[in-house]
Amino acid sequence: MNSVSDLSSLAGSSVVVVGGGFGGLSTACYLADAGADVTLLEKNEQLGGRASRLERDGFRFDMGPSWYLMPDVFEDFFGQFDRTPSDYYELTRLDPHYRIFFKDGDRVDMVPDLERNRETFESYEPGAGEKFDDYLRKSEKNYEIGMEHFVYTDRTTLSDFADWNVMKNARGLSLVGSMQDHVERYFQHPKLQQIMQYTLVFLGGAPNNTPALYNLMSHVDFNMGVYYPEGGLGGVVDGIVAVAEELGVEFHVDSPVSEIRGREGAFVTRTEGGSEFYSDYVVSDADYRHTEMELLPEHKRQYDENYWDSRTYAPSAYLLYLGVEGDVPSLEHHTLVLPTDWDDHFETIFDDPAWPGDPAYYLCVPSKTDDTVAPEGHSNLFVLVPIAAGLEDTPEQRERYRNLVLDDIAEHTGEDLRDRIVLEESFCVNDFADRYNSTQGTALGLAHTLRQTALLRPPHHSEKMPGLYFTGSFTTPGIGVPMCLISGQLTAEEMAERAD
After folding, report:
1. Which domains occur in the chain, in start order?
2. To pair with 55 at 20 to 30 A between CA atoms, which of 66, 271, 350, 367?
3. Could you give the CA distance from residue 423 to residue 435 in angstroms, rounded to a whole number?
4. Contact by Cβ (8 Å): 334, 94
5. Residue pLDDT, tens place only, 309-337
6. What local confidence, expressed as pLDDT, does residue 18 receive?
């Protein structure tokens, strides 16, 4: 278990946390456990942030994150409060971890059995089985060192990186270059490169703009495994909320914040309903830009509109939530459908924003594992297509894209869903912006590009408004449910350090 800094200096203080995503929930737990009086205000009708749930006509969908990766991070989080994940939900290891349909007609499964995966790699490229082992050894080393020295430890200045202990442990880590450069050193076959890079979608990056350090995700994928938590990711939210309530956190849902004013020791946080909450500190898990530009007085903002316009945002997404009659035998719990050349899709996200004509996308069918998410005789399925943040999102465009995606699924997976859909909802750029106050409708936050990693991300503390702190996917360590849980710890630690 990672060692958490002494948070006792926060005992007896009062804190308002704005936003009930994983970052806000995590921060609230650490602060309450330290003896602070914590009130969390959530804009929407349910907690979990982007891990909202859609329940209708006997179907239950995880609206956002659906992969349970890095189980060690969840074990560590619950362990900090003398609990375990199994106190709140059970895990099922998926087999296969996921299926990939390539659009040239090829299909491959990645499974818990490393020997079978090794054989799969060898079948595509002579010598790739041995390179697979080499790659995973490097990935595991990067994971172990990276998590200890660069994820659970917040390094906010260049001098932090110049520390001898850091430099010693960083030797041999893939700290420079892109994921594309790194993967090409091991594998020449484009399909093997894609298999090693698909997780970049969850980091909000592309192979040519994501730091090579993130090859550590292959250790997460192949060695640690892919799981399904009881109740889906919403069940994980329920577990963390239960911990927070046991620690004394007070929750207010349907409480969108309209204004944050004051100073350390004398903050006033106002909601759109006219309620006022007084506290010594405020922590925002809301979108960082929204917090600064919409909730703070102008003279208390660290960044202006030009700064936010110059950032690279992780993709938004076009999502279809589908209740379908019958089974979908060609699909697994997690299924990826990939063009054999996905460069064009990434270009439409980061270089020349447009709706991709030949999309790479993800299908999730939790009813393969969990019979409570759909009525008997039906399948629960959602489709996620990563698209550029800020795209024009109109009903006409959604309808055109719906038809394109359903045609593509039928052509490349063999599952024609069109005449079997009994429930359908879409979610896209405008919905991310409206529901989550998300800048440009990003689905994830600030992308993990080479220029937006580690100390190059916005800080956990406000440099203009002492006592105001930030947590979640815009801060370190970054995007993804495990990273946001860790962000909550880093925020609490920085608060305690500054309170001493």
Report:
1. 8-90+230-311+446-499 (3.50.50.60), 115-224 (no CATH), 313-436 (3.30.519)
2. 271
3. 21
4. yes
5. 999 999 999 999 999 999 999 999 999 99
6. 98
